[in-house]
Amino acid sequence: MNLPNSPELQEVIRQCLSNNRKAQQQLFSQCYSLAMNVTRRYAANLEEARSLVNEGMLKVFQQLHTYNSDFSFGGWVRRIMVNTAIDHFRKVKAYEQRFQDIDEQDDFSDKDKATVIDGMSAEELLVLVQQLPPAYRVVFSLYAVEEYTHKEIAEELGISEGTSKSNYAKARAKLQQALAGSTITNQNYHGQRK
């Protein structure tokens, strides 16, 4: 979803800054699809994604006075949603237990991970990503979708760069295993119907 910096959008923002409730509802509605698209990648389920949208939109309204209309409003909202998701996982999840440095790296070769994930639809991948453990889901989303580097992820989450790389590799492996399992299941199902 794109939120073009139209004169209409700028007027809605101006009215929101004047505490106009109807304008705030309108802005929330305009941002909802974009916000859900972002938060669903970080959330375990739809309910958690909605909670992140509400928390993120509260931040949008609280920080609206800092928005610079020379830049993309959609990009600004997206950044707030990503940061909200990161903050949520910092507060709620016990990173000490989930993000432990691993002495031995698992042997995951990118060339061995054929382009199975590349052939998936966005919705199929989203469903599988939501099933990942929180540590893997956050690292995968930041690296693969938001294009953070492992160094940036490590700084954001307070983990080592090696842990970020390891969690990303494990997330990819789990996604491929899940996809292979669903393919086998579908083949078996169709085989039984014949």
Quick description:
With 194 residues, this protein is an all-alpha fold. It has helices spanning 7-17, 21-39, 46-63, 73-92, 95-98, 122-130, 134-145, 150-157, 161-193.
Q: Estimate the helix proportion, in percent.
A: 55-70%
CATH hierarchy: architecture of the largest domain? Orthogonal Bundle
Number of folding domains? 2
Categorize the overall geometry: elongated
Tally of helical segments: 9
Order of helices and strands: HHHHHHHHH
Secondary structural class: mainly alpha
Our measurement of the CA-to-CA distance between the termini, rounded to an integer number of angstroms, reads 42 Å
| Estimated radius of gyration | 19 Å
Q: Which fold name is given in CATH as the topology of the largest domain? A: Arc Repressor Mutant, subunit A
Strand elements, count: 0
- The average pLDDT score comes to 79
CATH homologous superfamily descriptor of the largest domain:
Winged helix-like DNA-binding domain superfamily/Winged helix DNA-binding domain
What are the segments in which pLDDT stays under 50 over at least 5 consecutive residues?
Answer: 94-116, 183-194
* Major β-sheet annotation: none
Describe this structure in words.
With about 190 residues, the protein is mainly alpha-helical. It folds into two domains: about 5-90, Rna Polymerase Sigma Factor, Chain: A (Orthogonal Bundle); about 95-194, Orthogonal Bundle (Arc Repressor Mutant, subunit A). The chain contains nine helices and no strands.
Which key terms come to mind for this protein?
69% helix; single chain; Arc Repressor Mutant, subunit A
